[in-house]
Amino acid sequence: MAYNNPATSGIDMSPELMIRMVREIDNVCMIKESSGDIQRMHRIHELSGGTVPFFNGSNPLALEAFAAGATGWCTAAACLIPEQTLSLYAAVRSGNLAAARQTFYRQLPLLQFILKGGLPKTVKAGLRLQGLDVGAPRHPVLPLDEAGCRALATILGQVASGEARSAA
Fold this sequence. Notes:
- The chain is of the alpha/beta class.
- It contains eight helices and four strands, in the order βααβαβαβαααα.
- It has a four-stranded parallel beta sheet.
- Helix 4 (62-67) links the parallel strand 3 (54-56) and strand 4 (72-73).
- Helix 2 (15-24) packs parallel to helix 3 (38-48), helix 5 (82-93) crosses helix 6 (97-117) and helix 7 packs across helix 8.
- The two termini are 32 Å apart.
- The relative contact order is 0.10.
């Protein structure tokens, strides 16, 4: 899998480069696009004629990525809300856009929180809040602070109860 994640790697691979990698490197057969730019996913689809599987790696773009033809969604959110992530995938696969929107917006506050708060620290804190202590993040990442844990607990409660809604 060619993996474009410029925020963490410091390198931004263009859709053209990734399609070329799929075509020219025997073991590369799919793409994970995590730049946060939905136009990149459209371009991957366009350049490959829809033949190259691509995966979304940007949580807040899950709904749009599926609409753009993403094969799947690589997300750590499933560690905390597995039913909702599976529900979104099932709704998209069945063509039920209304249900896909509903489940996406239900989980969007958590998806945004994970993105802003840092994946390792927020997922580990969320698992601890749900009764599964998996330890602290590896250094140099610090654990989520107390205020962050309180905010995360509120968001998880809202997502579980169906109260969570995005202002978007």
